[in-house]
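ingest -> fold -> write
write: protein_1
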Amino acid sequence: QMKKNRPAHTLVALCEPAVTDAVAATLLNHSTTIGLRIVPFEKVELPRETVTLATSLGDVQIKKVTQPDGRHRWKSEHADILSLSRQHGLDYPTVKRQLDLEISRLLESG
């Protein structure tokens, strides 16, 4: 909602600084808006590594990250889970649960 309770829409365009003027011109030329807010921002990323692990269903890539407090966490790669679920004729959630359990055990055992 905008001023005077008018309905509003928000459009967010993420772009490289070098093309900000071109993106702004496109939005102003091809919409009804009369102004834009341009907000620079920074992205903070955790240190990460990609590791491939062998599981009972096949190889799976995981991304391991190190949190600021030194703890580690990981996430299995969506594309690998999808591929293995199709390959084995199993549904995605079942494959993800099985793989996540196996991966947890593999990582705990070193």
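write: protein_2
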Amino acid sequence: MARADVVIATYNRHASLNRCLEALCLQTEPDFGVILVDDGSDPPVSRTIEAPTLAALRPRIVTTPGNGGPARARNLGVRASEAEIVAFIDDDVVACPEWMERHLAAHDAGGESGIVIGPLRAPADWRPTAWNLWEARTLEVEYRRMLQHVYEPTWRQFFTGNASLRRETLLAAGGFNETFTRAEDIELAYRMHRLGARFLFEPSAIGWHYAERTIASWLAIPRAYARFDVMIDSLYPELEWLKLIESEFRLRHPFSRAGEATLRRLSAETPGVNVAVALARAFHAAGLSRLTVPLLSFAYSVEHRRSLARSTAGHGSAAIASGEIQQGVQGP
């Protein structure tokens, strides 16, 4: 049995998945298996994986009934594993050749309670949209601050696009909460943190992230995160999560805060976001990313705060408290 299993949840990203799997064929550390969770793809990924890759990796393919989201898919992958270490990588990420070697070395150095986070970086041959570039630049800020020891890695930096941990740690925490279709990784990470897990950043375990997202899909992200922020606040009142979000908002540039307040007062959030996105597109096309990034940060914040206000007003804490949220992997 391999020491590690790589769990990949995938849905209708056939070309990206093949690129991801090809990179796993080139790893300098061969002691791992691959568990591929097909979350309702049409056609099934078993028909679209390229034959040489299939022969080289011999992945175990788990199929789900319908598209249930990444939390459920990853839980199914973890259940199918018996390895000591489970690594997660997204289907649009290409692991560097030393990726698995560096993850395992970090575990050896970090002790049994260590959870390893690798960076998601922008590939040189990637041609991103303005908003996909914004995502990459935002992550780069996080990585730079951790490398400069502005802050140490915590559960808030646990992103399952590139991470690994001991399977028993994940099982002890109860697995991914399948009610969460966004923020499922940091919600799990907080539960592992409460059990004493430590988070380690390994900058050399690089995943090259070929993100592709429409503007509609990108704008849906802050709205979804806002809904799950309210759920996290209800599940873990000791965090005072919504107060923390508000305190971090107050650190934003005064012009940005004033602009958001003006749009809210005029009930003009939607046209304001549309103008910010249109300007960001134009500046991106002109190669002026310095202007693109703050415009999209403004649009993201407007959408997040508007959705947060709606979610807080319609508070779902009663449903949460009643136990409708379920974790998906139980320990032995």
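write: annotation protein_2
The CA atoms of residues 40 and 66 lie 5 Å apart.
The longest strand covers residues 4-10.
pipeline exit 0
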